[in-house]
Amino acid sequence: MSDTSGFKLLVVGSSLGGMTALVQLLGRLPEDFFLPVVAVQHLAPSTESQLAEILNRHIALQVKEAEEKESISASTVYLAPPNYHLLVETDLTFTLTLDELVNYARPAIDVLFETAAEACGPAVIGIVMTGANSDGAKGLSHIKQKGGWTMVQEPSTAQSKAMPDAAVKTAKPDLVLPIDAITDWLLALHTTQKRRTLV
């Protein structure tokens, strides 16, 4: 973490067990956390998601579903809506698509991660957490190839370790840690960034 000044975006992927994992990851972040957070949680396509409402009860950051062409702002958690892929554009806005399923999922973590890497290059932090498939592994590898920072939940601590295992094997991430330790890392990054802005 020698240079933290260039980060613009934090992207997170989760599936089975992801709601609990997201609360754990984001619950200690302050309401003025300096990065936008964009998350894909695998959801049933035919149901209205209550994930934003649930997360808003447990975390200080504002949580909302991402909207088409919406500008991405700091201190906000954006969630992919059910049955839509969520893409990050180079002007830091969102695109929602009904393109084919990826890894049997829509929204797919790989789609978010790959477009975030293309849009922001080394300015992206990617995190893969609990899940029962391999979604996110390819996308996290793409983030690393573009110079971004990559983290994976320690598989032995995940409710379902298939997704973290696949991400570790494919992406060879920078850090593999329990969720609480990932949050500690993000809090340290936030503190460092605030000090930079005060100088």
From TrEMBL:
CDD domains the record matches: CheB
Pfam families xrefs: CheB_methylest
Catalytic activity: [protein]-L-glutamate 5-O-methyl ester + H2O = L-glutamyl-[protein] + methanol + H(+)
EC id: 3.1.1.61
InterPro entries reported for this sequence: CheB_C, Sig_transdc_resp-reg_Me-estase
Domain CheB-type methylesterase: 3-188
Entry annotation: catalytic residues: S15, H42, D135
Keyword terms of this UniProt record: Chemotaxis, Hydrolase
Protein name per its UniProtKB record: protein-glutamate methylesterase
Organism listed in the record: Bowmanella denitrificans
